[in-house]
Automatic annotation (TrEMBL):
Name of protein: O-antigen ligase family protein
Originating organism: Microbispora oryzae
InterPro entries xrefs: WaaL-like (IPR051533)
Coiled-coil zones: none
Keyword Cell inner membrane found: no
């Protein structure tokens, strides 16, 4: 993200095992592939929020970051939206059944767990969980994501029944939303290019989740391995990025490609050496254009089959939200027909009928259908406020975290944030909060070349 500072926390303190109070976040981030194999994946936050809450209770009073009241209001609004679970907007169908109730309760539990997670991270002292330690844990998850992407490319049909899936009743397993969460698969095989193409998704819920999560994790990977890395880490980082390019291209994920381009532009604008960064980006682009991968990108851009479906669901979602603008309808709904036909859903004689549920094409649209325009505004205000509040922080962590907040606002129109994406978004938010809380207002925004030894260790760690 920026040149390596001259003073950096090293030695046994940085390599020691985390204190007992930090094991929940270590289990969440480092143990994510294990949770995925067990069928929990992002649902692991529901399990780990319990010990996090125990830590919070023991460390009262509980601190909250500025602007966090917006997240509390978002949660309160979601509770109120339950009143409309039995209702349907115009041009939508379906009864209040187990599937609808399960979707609502899972999302509610996730929102509560994420609130606990942010407060828990803020309660941990920097000598317990250094910023660099958390950043490098996210870097390990990036390596896991790249490995999962390669698995999806090389073994796209790999899937298995998880222990959680086996334990669930069949009527719960049959719910598509639940199936995506508890059934591990290496890739989604789709016909985006007119033929079967694997789109990596391991170790996340679906292909779009893999793309969005990778673009967030690569930001933290570069902070830990480049901005705060030595020569060997930097060389390894370049090699890892070259390998990661393969599943990134094979993902056929236009949202991911746009996000990576935005991240590169952000680095050029806000980096300490914009000319060098621009030159490196140009060289990387030239190498890519000369590689066979560029042909796949061209095919994907020439095959926008999903545009019509997205346009239909987005327009239908906005219409539905307009009929309940304050509290929404609690969760997603099914619309009549699709962009081609008025048939309700897919049938044996109309394979092209049917469509994703309203609200499944992006977090913004999910908020519109589930919580109305009020919920969508709270979400935008929360993450947009974080960009405004932490923009002056020009440390590597400050710049990286602000970039992630910008990516959140970009991805809300194309990616559903449930569940892994919101976990990463709010860990990034917590990193920004911890960074700002540890650095006194008198500390210059630029990274100093030296930090007086009188400055407390936690502050020196963040500044450098």
């Amino acid at each position: 993200m920026s040149p390596r500072p001259s003073l950096h926390v090293r030695g046994r303190a940085a390599r020691r095992l985390p204190p007992p109070s930090t094991w929940p976040v270590a289990a969440l981030v480092l143990g994510y592939p294990v949770w995925w194999a067990l069928g929990l994946g992002g649902l692991s936050i529901l399990v780990l929020a319990v010990p996090m809450a125990v830590v919070l209770v023991r460390r009262r009073p509980i601190r909250a970051p500025r602007g966090f009241g917006l997240w509390v209001l978002l949660l309160a609004g979601y509770l109120i939206s339950a009143a409309a679970l039995g209702e349907n907007p115009p041009e939508a169908h379906g009864d209040l059944a187990a599937g609808r109730a399960i979707g609502y309760l899972v999302r509610l539990a996730v929102y509560v767990a994420l609130l606990v997670m942010v407060l828990y991270l803020g309660a941990l002292r920097h000598d317990e969980l250094p910023q660099l330690t958390l950043v490098r844990w996210l870097g390990v998850l990036f390596l896991t994501t790249v490995a999962g992407g390669l698995l999806g490319v090389l073994a796209p049909h790999l899937e298995f029944t998880s222990p959680l899936e086996m334990a669930l009743p069949s009527w719960i397993r049959a719910n598509p939303f639940v199936t995506n969460l508890v059934h591990p698969t290496a890739a989604q095989v789709q016909h985006v290019l007119g033929h079967a193409s694997p789109r990596p998704e391991a170790p996340f819920e679906w292909a779009n989740a893999w793309g969005g999560d990778l673009s967030v994790l690569v930001v933290w990977f570069m902070v830990g391995w480049w901005a705060y890395g030595g020569t060997y880490r930097r060389v390894a980082a370049i090699a890892v990025l070259a390998v990661a390019a393969v599943p990134v291209v094979y993902s056929l994920n236009r949202g991911l490609w746009i996000g990576l381009a935005l991240s590169a532009a952000y680095l050029v604008v806000r980096g300490r050496r914009p000319v060098l960064l621009a030159g490196a980006a140009a060289v990387a682009g030239a190498v890519f254009l000369l590689s066979p991968l560029s042909g796949i990108v061209g095919e994907r851009l020439d095959s926008p089959q999903s545009n019509g479906i997205r346009a239909f669901t987005v327009v239908s979602t906005v219409r539905a939200a307009a009929s309940s603008p304050v509290i929404g309808y609690g969760t997603t709904r099914n619309a009549y027909g699709n962009q081609r036909t008025v048939t309700t859903g897919r049938t044996s004689w109309c394979r092209e009928c049917g469509h994703p549920p309203l609200g499944s094409d992006g977090q913004l649209w999910l908020l519109l259908i589930s919580q109305g325009f009020a919920g969508a505004l709270l979400y935008v205000a929360f993450f947009g406020g974080a960009v405004r509040r932490y923009w002056p922080d020009r440390s590597p962590i400050g710049r990286a975290g602000t970039l992630v907040m910008i990516l959140v606002l970009l991805y809300m129109v194309v990616y559903d944030g449930m569940i892994s994406a919101l976990i990463l978004y709010l860990i990034s938010f917590a990193l920004l909060w911890r960074n700002a809380a540890a650095v006194p207002a008198t500390v210059p925004t630029a990274v100093p070349t030296a930090v007086p030894t009188a400055v407390p260790t936690a502050v020196r760690e963040v500044v450098t």
